[in-house]
Fold this protein.
Amino acid sequence: MSTLSIRGLDDTLSKQLKKTASAEQKSVNQFVIEILKQHLGMAKQKKFTQSFNDLDHLFGSWSEESFNTITKKIDSERQIDNELWK
C-alpha cells in the first residue's frame, strides 16, 4: 500500500470532504479512496445492493383491525393438512 499526501486543499473543500464522509459513516481516507476509484473507473460494482421503495407508501398504514385480520388469514394458511401428508 502506498501513502499519498494531498496539499493545497482549501478550507471549504476540506470541510465538505469531512462532512460527506461523516454522513456516509466513513473515514475521510476511505471516502477519498472511493471517490478516486469511482472517478478512475476502478470501483467494483456491488452486487445485490439494489433497493426497492415501491411499497413504502404502505408502511404503517394498517389499522390494528386490518393487521389482526391479515395475521389470522396467514395463520390459517400455515395449518398442516394431515390428509395430504399421509
User: Anything to note?
Assistant: The radius of gyration is 26 Å. The chain has three helices and no strands. Residues 70 and 76 are 10 Å apart (CA to CA).
